[in-house]
Write a structure and sequence with these properties.
Largest sheet of chain A: 5 strands, parallel
Chains: A alpha/beta, B alpha+beta, C alpha/beta
CATH class of the largest domain in chain C: Mainly Alpha
Structural class of chain A: alpha/beta
Radius of gyration of chain A: 20 Å
Shape of chain C: elongated
Number of strands of chain A: 7
Mean pLDDT of chain C: 84
CATH architecture of the largest domain in chain A: 3-Layer(aba) Sandwich
Strand content of chain A: 5-15%
Bound molecules: iron/sulfur cluster
Oligomer: heterotrimer
Helix content of chain C: 40-55%
CATH topology of the largest domain in chain C: Cytochrome-c3 Hydrogenase, chain B
Strand order of the largest sheet of chain A: 2-1-3-5-7
Mean pLDDT of chain A: 84
Strand order of the largest sheet of chain C: 14-13-15-17-16
Number of domains of chain A: 2
CATH superfamily of the largest domain in chain C: Cytochrome-c3 Hydrogenase, chain B
CATH class of the largest domain in chain A: Alpha Beta
Number of domains of chain C: 2
Structural class of chain C: alpha/beta
Low-confidence stretches of chain A: none
Strand content of chain C: 15-25%
CATH superfamily of the largest domain in chain A: NADH:ubiquinone oxidoreductase-like, 20kDa subunit
Distance between the termini of chain A: 64 Å
Order of helices and strands of chain A: EHHEEEHEHHEEHHHHHH
Radius of gyration of chain C: 26 Å
Largest interface: A-C, 69 and 74 residues
CATH topology of the largest domain in chain A: Rossmann fold
Shape of chain A: globular
CATH architecture of the largest domain in chain C: Orthogonal Bundle
Helix content of chain A: 25-40%
């Protein structure tokens, strides 16, 4: 039986600055889409429907990082309206690729390079940050993009009032489950040990090193990974950039405190 | 135990015949390593492998599998991972590994998921030749007297086949014409020569007898901190070890009132989450403490209980850990033989 | 307006909107804005290795992530002089076809059809269009499956790498894809009929230039090394800047493009318009059956073109698979070039996509990415303003919002953008004052008076100009002084050009309206030929910086007397300009 909308939890799915990949992934759950719409009252989902309303919400899923003043306001408003806020995707959780300019000056320089001095009339840009730089986030669902099964089971748990259950270990664990021969041992720079599991180690399954797209795992031993890569002959700057590609603001402290970086 | 002879060229035809009875798992190539896989093309079976990337326990307890189906009606056990299997090409150390697992899973309470799978799998062992990482002679797991249904010793032109169980014997009876019951003196001489040569091929070893004491004596040694600094906490050593057996569970729920599942997956004591208890408190927050737990378990606790280490000398941790923390380096460091230069560097800072 | 064409923002497929401002009977402003924040993706790539850049750039847009990866790979391989084995090209084509089907089916079924059928979303539509929704979901799922098989996952798969693939799919997987594609054919044909037979409104209809990749060997296709235009011109990919030639607009984080001073369109409709004759098989038959001249003038037919391309893709997949099965899996091609530059072009689902890189000392030193939506932005604004004015003229103001939605959505800028977000604003009273003040703030304008002094109020423009001259304001001209229409353009478009004219907007006499000069082309009731004529002569950058201040006349009878309300208006304008 289809439930009446007023018995269902009210859900909003929002996109800030990102690639829309996480929202698209939700649409990619073709088999489950009907269930998703039946299980919850989807109040706002710009990518999927036109009759969107912005009222009180039980759960807000937020994709993307905050990159303009307007997005900041939108986010604060979402927080006010929603009982639970879930960050989906690494842009939202950690800042994503666009947060790789680690300091404000560098960001301003790069902004100028692209837009020159044109004054933006519609909304003021700010340096990209994860959403928890502005609001309290209840749950994080990392990934770039998020993974289907993980999303579905998490979504369902949240609907039932349970916190998400996610893997909290590095990609290496899934990589071993898939019985791959470790690439680091073949001197290929793999970021598996410092990257959060959940993707199913797909890159290594395809004989390619992990580039870290799920963001840093909680207990990433960055020093050891850095040392190891140096040990294998990789260049200091190369490793630094490689580690920063997807980790957003999460790696700023580590990289900022590196010895031998005199800038 | 009955021993018979099988000509080389009859091996694959024999495997083909028995594979009609059950899925046949055997070592095949993956990149430049090997893995156990269900085979139907017997030309792909590798006879001269050393270790597979994952130990054979994956065949009994896959890295993740469903334990229960959950529905409105309640829980229903899910044994879909249990099917009739024949495991061919498993080496003595790995058979010892299974015997060790048997001890764990029969210990306090029986683990039906393991035991059912075990019951349904025939073990067809195969002799091996050590490479520079094997040290099964130190753990006395390089030879095997129990724990198999058939065991094939590869003597170049022929196999000597030990029949370890009546189920093994039943397999032989499917094609008795492939086998020769009469061993000649030369056959026996060849076997003895092979055995002596093989013993000599083990290039290194560890004195495991000394380790339980040393672990106690060096429990607060700075060595552990250095190890902890280097450890990536990637869980690889644990995942590849044939005697590790910890697991965690997670429930997967599906939308729209459909059934859920209780998933069981390999856990590792070297991972942060492992020692975390409800409420978020972690009593082994430090990697050094977790490593200490792992090695204490392998090299001390199990010895006190069963009189032998729970390491079977397969060498997997040695070839797997990217930062060289393994039974060899840790064992040698404890013995004061040689502290491995590689991970000793890791208490330093990263520099340009 | 400042023009910068060095570097620009890549990410346009994000949230945005279109707004039209209506002042009385006139649409005075249409803006297509991307609100989505700047990600500076091109700058992020600088200093990274080519491999890392190929990892990062697909994150510009999930819906086109495969196309971005493909374009980046082609650019890098061109730069590094890598020739990939044919099995690599075939698997890339397969993943690209997968993306085409996924993106088009998502667009036409999830987004467009609910619009035409009057439902808020695809799931709600299931109640009435059960079969269509089922086809849509299954088609998209199949396309996702192809992308996952070829690239590693649904979105942002990392399997395609410079020089080849990490791993090739197994024979059985390819065979499955082939047989499934064949099974799908009846539904695909149904899709084409459905979308080619939809009743597309005939407004807006207007000519434009279409651009797309020029595929090899005279075939229909989605990749090439040249760009072909509907004018018949062919450009080499390395000269892409002469086509795309981007500039920053202050109302959007996406840059705009134009070709030879004119806006142009890219996308499925551009491809079918430029290359449709080359379609073979069922797609060829369907093209012959449905194609007509309206496709060339009406952006709404993009949905029909997308359906046709889905059919093309489904017919192409079995052929690609057949060829792949005959070839063995090649290793990744290695390279050791450290200094290089190169460009790669590809057709993303929504049109021509250009990636261009420079590599120095083994690291990327310059990146230029031009997305389809950046190229379409100008035409989107243009078609929306045409539609808005036409509907306003026909007294159907209430339809403007939905129609603009349809136009924007037809361009398929991306799904978040194409969601309903059109906005129709009523201009506040005396809006012309604010507009004029804004223009004056940017740079001091040049004024031109237009009209006929012997036709009473029709002389208002001239009158105004003469009064300004008398007050000593510089750079004021009369229509008659524009010998060869050359004078004002000596300012190279850097200063705004404001024409004064009496224009019948059917408003109260004396009402002042201020609007971009380009919009007067949309307005059919203009009495003077002069302004449309002159705006045809103008370069696009001048036109974009030219405006008209129109005063509603009371009478245009013969005589020189200016009516009191028009006279008052002239005085008001004078005061504003002097301010
Ligand atoms: S996390 Fe990845 S998939 Fe999600 S919006 Fe950001 S770039 Fe896109
Ligand atoms: S290949 Fe990468 S992910 Fe896999 S075990 Fe090695 S380091 Fe970890
Ligand atoms: S880059 Fe790493 S985390 Fe991302 S998909 Fe590949 S293996 Fe997984
Ligand atoms: S500790 Fe190492 S050598 Fe010993 S059984 Fe485990 S993986 Fe093999």
């Amino acid at each position: 039986m289809e439930k009446e909308n007023n018995d269902k939890l009210k859900i909003g799915i929002y996109e800030l600055t990102g690639c829309a990949g996480d929202a698209l992934l939700i649409l990619d759950c073709e088999k489950e889409l009907v269930d998703i719409f039946n299980a919850a009252d989807i109040q706002s989902f710009l990518m999927a429907k036109s009759d969107n309303i912005d009222e009180e919400l039980d759960i807000a899923l937020v994709e993307g990082s905050v990159s303009t003043e307007r997005e900041k306001e939108e986010l604060l408003d979402i927080r006010k309206r929603a009982k639970t806020v879930v960050a989906i995707g690494i842009c939202s959780c950690f800042g994503g690729i666009q947060a790789a300019f680690l300091d404000q000056k560098e960001w301003e320089k790069n902004f100028k390079k692209i837009y020159g001095d044109t004054k933006m009339t519609h909304t003021k840009p700010v340096q990209s940050k994860p959403i928890d730089a502005y609001i309290k986030v209840d749950y994080y669902l990392p990934g770039c993009p998020i993974e289907k099964e993980q999303f579905l089971s998490t979504f369902n748990r949240i609907l039932r009032g349970n916190p998400p259950e996610l893997y909290r270990f590095p990609v290496c664990v899934e990589c071993k489950w898939n019985e791959n021969d470790c690439l680091l041992n073949k001197d290929i720079p793999c970021l598996g040990p410092i990257t959060r599991a959940g993707c199913g180690s797909i890159c290594i399954n395809h004989n390619l090193p992990c580039v870290g797209c799920w963001g840093l795992v909680e207990e990433a031993n960055l020093t050891s990974e850095f040392q190891l890569l140096q040990e294998k002959g990789f260049d200091y700057d190369f490793i630094k950039k490689k580690m920063a590609n997807f980790s957003g603001t999460g790696i700023a402290d580590f990289l900022g405190n590196l010895k031998g970086d005199k800038k | 135990m009955r021993v018979i002879k099988l000509n080389k060229e009859n091996l694959f035809p024999f495997l083909e015949v028995i594979s009609e009875k059950a899925d046949l798992w055997a070592p095949v190539k993956k990149g430049d390593k090997h893995v156990f896989k269900v085979v139907d093309d017997f030309s792909k079976v590798e006879l001269s492998t050393t270790r597979t990337i994952l130990p054979p326990r994956k065949i009994f307890l896959p890295p993740t599998f469903s334990m229960f189906n959950i529905s409105e009606k309640g829980y229903e056990e899910d044994f879909s991972h249990v099917t009739k299997k024949i495991l061919f090409g498993i080496h003595p150390c790995d058979i010892h590994g299974l015997l060790t697992l048997d001890n764990f899973f029969k210990q306090d309470y029986l683990d039906p998921y393991y035991l059912e799978a075990r019951k349904n799998t025939l073990i067809l062992g195969l002799s091996c030749w050590p490479d520079e990482y094997c040290f099964a002679k130190s753990t006395n797991t390089h030879i095997i007297e129990e724990g198999f249904d058939l065991f094939f010793t590869d003597l170049k032109d022929f196999f000597l086949v030990w029949i370890g169980s009546s189920q093994g014997d039943d397999l032989i009876r499917l094609k008795p014409e492939f086998f020769d019951e009469n061993l000649t003196d030369t056959d026996i001489q060849t076997y003895i020569r092979w055995q002596t040569e093989r013993d000599k091929a083990y290039k290194w070893g560890i004195n495991f007898n000394a380790l339980p004491d040393l672990i106690e004596l060096k429990y607060r040694d700075s060595l552990w901190e250095k190890l902890g600094d280097a450890c990536l906490a990637c869980g690889s050593c644990t995942n590849v070890c044939p005697t590790c057996n910890c697991y965690n569970i997670m429930d997967k729920q599906f939308l729209g009132g459909k059934d859920g599942k209780m998933i069981r997956y390999w856990d590792a004591c070297t991972l942060e989450e492992y020692s975390e208890i409800a409420g978020g408190e972690n009593f082994r927050k430090k990697r050094a403490d977790r490593l200490k737990l792992w090695y204490t378990h392998k090299l001390q606790a199990y010895i006190s209980k069963y009189g032998k280490p729970s390491c079977v000398g397969c060498g997997r941790c040695i070839v797997t850990c990217p930062v060289d923390i393994n039974v060899r380096t840790v064992g040698k460091a404890l013995l004061g033989e040689k502290e491995d230069a590689f991970w000793l560097r890791f208490n330093k800072e990263v520099t340009k | 307006m400042k023009r910068i064409s060095v570097e620009h923002l890549a990410r346009v497929e994000g949230s945005g909107g279109i707004s039209a401002t209506i002042d009385g009977n006139v649409v005075t402003d249409v803006k297509f804005s991307i609100y989505e924040g700047p990600r500076l993706v091109e700058r992020l790539t600088v200093g990274k290795t080519p491999e890392e850049v190929v990892n990062i750039v697909p994150r510009i847009c999930a819906i086109c992530s495969i196309s971005h990866k493909y374009a980046a790979l082609r650019a890098m391989e061109n730069a590094l002089s890598i020739k990939v084995p044919s099995k690599v090209s075939l698997l890339r084509e397969l993943m690209h076809l997968g993306e085409m089907i996924e993106s088009h089916s998502l667009h036409i079924y999830y987004l467009a059809l609910p619009d035409y059928a009057g439902f808020p979303n695809v799931i709600a539509m299931a109640s009435k269009f059960e079969l269509e929704v089922k086809i849509a979901l299954e088609m998209k799922e199949f396309a996702n499956h192809i992308m996952k098989t070829a690239s590693g996952r649904y979105i942002h798969g990392e399997n395609p790498v410079i020089g080849g693939f990490g791993k090739f799919p197994a024979r059985e997987e390819l065979l499955w894809i082939k047989s499934r594609a064949i099974q799908f054919m009846p539904f695909v044909l149904k899709t084409v009929s459905l979308f080619c037979e939809l009743d597309y409104p005939d407004c807006p209809e207007e000519d434009t230039v279409y651009a797309c990749c020029h595929p090899y060997q005279n075939k229909y296709g989605l990749a090439g090394d040249e760009i072909i235009l509907s004018t018949g011109e062919i450009l080499n990919k390395d000269d892409y800047k002469s086509l795309t030639n981007e500039f920053v607009v202050s109302h959007s984080y996406a840059k705009h493009s134009r070709y030879k001073e004119k806006p142009f369109s890219v996308g499925a409709l551009a491809r079918v318009n430029n290359l449709g004759e080359r379609l073979k098989g069922e797609a060829g038959k369907m093209y012959k059956k449905y194609f007509n001249r309206r496709w060339k003038r009406n952006p709404l037919f993009n949905n029909a073109a997308q359906a046709l391309e889905i059919l093309y893709a489904f017919e192409r997949i079995p052929k690609v698979v057949e060829k792949m099965l005959k070839l063995s899996d090649p290793a990744i091609v290695k390279y050791n070039t450290k200094e290089a530059k190169g460009t790669g072009i590809i057709e993303a689902p929504r049109g021509l996509l250009v990636h261009s890189y420079e590599i120095s000392d083994g690291l990327v030193s310059y990146t230029d990415i031009i997305t389809p939506t950046a190229q379409n932005a100008e035409d989107i604004e243009r078609y929306c303003s045409i539609a808005a004015q036409k509907l306003l003229d026909a007294g159907e103001e209430d339809k403007i919002k939905d129609r603009m939605d349809l136009v924007v959505r037809a361009y398929d800028p991306c799904i978040s953008c194409s969601a309903h977000m059109a906005e129709v604003k009523k201009a506040p009273a005396e809006d012309w004052k604010t507009k004029l003040a804004e223009i004056k703030k940017k740079a001091s304008p040049i004024f031109v008076g237009v009209g006929k002094r012997d036709r009473s109020d029709d002389g208002a423009g001239i009158e105004l100009a003469l009064k300004l001259k008398k007050l000593g304001v510089s750079d004021v001209y009369l229509e008659s002084e524009l010998v060869d229409y050359k004078i004002p353009w000596k300012y190279k478009g850097s200063r705004p050009l404001i024409f004064f004219d009496a224009v019948n907007f059917r408003e109260a006499p004396g009402k002042v309206t201020f609007l971009p000069l380009s919009y007067i082309m949309n307005n059919t009731r203009l009495s003077h030929k002069f302004l449309p004529f002159i705006s045809m002569q103008m370069k696009y950058k001048h036109l974009k910086n030219a405006y008209m201040l129109g005063i509603q006349p009371e009478s245009i009878e013969e005589g020189t007397k200016i009516s009191p309300p028009v006279h008052q208006a002239i005085i008001k304008v004078l005061k504003e300009i002097k301010n």
